[in-house]
Amino acid sequence: MRHLWHLRPSGTLILAIGVFTLLLFLLFTLQESPPTYEVREQPPETPKTLAGPTPPTPPARAPCHANTSVAAHPDFAGQPRQVQDFLLYKHCRDFPLLQDPPPSKCAQPVFLLLAIKSSPSNYERRELLRRTWGRERKVQGLQLRLLFLVGTASNPHEARKVNRLLELEAQTHGDILQWDFHDTFFNLTLKQVLFLQWQEVRCANTSFVLNGDDDVFAHTDNMVSYLQGHDPGHHLFVGQLIRNVGPIRVSWSKYYVPKMVTQNERYPPYCGGGGFLLSRFTADALRRAARVLDLFPIDDVFMGMCLELEGLKPASHSGIRTVGVHVPSQRLSSFDPCFYRDLLLVHRFLPYEMLLMWDALNRPNLTCGKQRQIH
Ligand SMILES: *[C@@H]1O[C@H](CO)[C@@H](O)[C@H](O)[C@H]1NC(C)=O
Ligand SMILES: *[C@@H]1O[C@H](CO)[C@@H](O)[C@H](O)[C@H]1NC(C)=O
Ligand SMILES: *[C@@H]1O[C@H](CO)[C@@H](O)[C@H](O)[C@H]1NC(C)=O
Ligand SMILES: *[C@@H]1O[C@H](CO)[C@@H](O)[C@H](O)[C@H]1NC(C)=O
Fold it and tell me: Membrane-crossing residues (predicted)?
C-alpha cells in the first residue's frame, strides 16, 4: 500500500472520487447483502446467545459474535491483543467470499494449484509472482493454476481501499480468492481451512497443491518434475520438516501461544508454512480433520495437528528451505542461480530478486559448475 497510494495530486483526487463512489455503493449494498464485520460491530439486534454451541445457520448468514464467556477467564485480560482476538473469535469459521475466481480456473483438470497466502496490501508481490514462477501455464503439458488467498484489512478505511484493489486485480487476473475476515497472522489458519473447503467444491480435480507465502521463490518447473513421480491418490505432504518444538511461552513473541490456548508443551511434526506440497488424497484428509479440530492460531502447526489426527506424517524435501538457506560452499553466492537450480522452494525473496532469479534460471545457456554472477 505504501507505494501504491503515493500518487500525484491529480491521481489522489481521482482516487478520492473513486473511494467516495465506492463508499456510497457500499452504503446501499450493505442494506441488502449479508452483514459484514462492519455491521457486526454495531449492537446486535438479536438477543445475545453468545456461549451457545449452535453455529450460525443458513439461509441468512448470521454474523458471528465474540464468545464473551472466554473473557471471564482470569488470564484473559493480560493476554496480547491477537491472542484475545483469537480466543474470542476462533469458533467463527464461516465468512462470506468477497472475490471468487471464475469457473474457468478449474474447468480443466489442474495438475498443480498454487494457493498463495497474501496480505491484502501485498500488491507488488502478487504482480511479481504472476510474471515469474506463478505464471499460469502448462509445464510438460500439465496445467498450473494460481490463486491468492486473502482476507481484508482490520481498519475499515484501509479495508475499503484494499477491497477495491483486490476487486481490480480479480477483474484483471481472475486469481483472487478473498474472504471477509481480518487478514491477521493468527487468522492464517482460518484462511487455510477456508481454502481447503473452497477447493473441495470449486477445484476438486486438482492433483497437487502448493500452499505457500507470497515471499517465497518456488521453482515451479522443478516442482512439476518432482510431482510427476507421485500419485495424487496417495499421501504426500512435503516441505521443510520441523520436529521437537512446542509453544513459545514468552508474550512478546509473534508466535506466543499461552496455556489458555493450549496446555500441551509439544507440537506434532509439521512443515514450515512458507511452502509445502500436498496431494489430493492429503487435502481430503486435512479437510476432514480440520472439521473436527478446534482452530489453532499457528497455521502450519495446525496442519501438523490435522495430519496427526489422520495418522499421516509430514515429510522433508531437501529442496524446500523455508527457514533460511544454508549455502553449500563459499564459492557459491547465496544468489547464484546454480544454487537454486535444484531447489523447489526458498523463503524470503524480495520482489525484484524473484524477477532476477526467474530470468536467470530460464536462460537457455545457464551453465553451472563454475562460479557465475547474474548481477
Ligand atoms: C465459549 O467459551 C467457553 C469458555 O472457554 C467455551 O466453553 C464455549 O464452548 C465457547 N463457545 C463457543 C461457541 O465456542
Ligand atoms: C479473525 O477475523 C475475524 C473476522 O474478521 C475477527 O473478528 C477476528 O478478530 C480475527 N482474529 C484475529 C486473531 O485476528
Ligand atoms: C479429473 O480429471 C481427470 C483427467 O482428465 C478425469 O479423468 C477425471 O474424471 C476427473 N475427475 C473429476 C472428479 O472431475
Ligand atoms: C546467454 O544468453 C544471454 C541472452 O539470452 C546472452 O546475453 C549472453 O551473452 C549469453 N551468455 C553466454 C555465455 O553465452
Answer: 12-30
pLDDT score of 243 more than 80: yes
Q: Is residue 194 part of a domain?
A: yes
204 lines ligand 3 (CB under 6 A): yes
Pair type for strands 176-182 and 97-99: antiparallel
Q: Is residue 308 part of a domain?
A: yes
Task: State how far the Cα of 196 lies from the Cα of 190, in Å rounded to an integer.
Answer: 10
Please say whether the dihedral angle defined by the alpha carbons of residues 308, 266, 275 and 105, taken in this order, is positive or negative. positive
pTM of the model: 0.81
- Ligand 2 pocket check for 181: Cβ under 6 Å: yes
Distance 70 CA to ligand 3 centre (A): 46
Q: Which cell is 297 given?
A: 492460531
pLDDT classification of 39: cutoffs 50, 70, 90:
very low
CATH of the domain at 245: 3.90.550
Q: Which ligand is nearest to the CA of 260?
A: 1
In a domain, 8, yes or no: no
Which residue has its alpha carbon closest to ligand 3 atom 14? Answer: 205
Residue 285 parent element (H or E) = helix 280-292
Kindly report the protein residue whose alpha carbon is nearest to atom 6 of ligand 3. Answer: 109
What Å distances lie between residue 11 and 4, 117, 341, CA to CA? 11, 30, 42
Q: 165 CA distance to ligand 2 centroid (A)? A: 21
Cα(326) to centroid of ligand 4, in Å? 28
374 burial type by CB count under 10 A (0-12 exposed, 13-18 middle, 19+ buried): middle
**Spatial distance between the Cα atoms of 340 and 121, rounded to a whole number of angstroms:** 28
Give the count of domains, the chain.
1
- Report the nearest atom of ligand 2 relative to the CA of 181: 5
pLDDT, one tens digit per residue, over 165-206 is 999 999 999 999 999 999 999 999 999 999 999 999 999 999
Amino acid at 300: D
Instruction: Give distance in angstroms: CA of 262 to centre of ligand 1.
Output: 14
Q: How far, in Å, CA of 220 to CA of 223, rounded?
A: 5
Contacts of 188 (CB under 8 A, 6+ apart): 117, 273, 298, 299
The protein residue with its alpha carbon nearest to ligand 3, atom 12, reads: 205
Domain that residue 248 falls in:
71-321
> Which triple of cell numbers denotes residue 153?
484489512
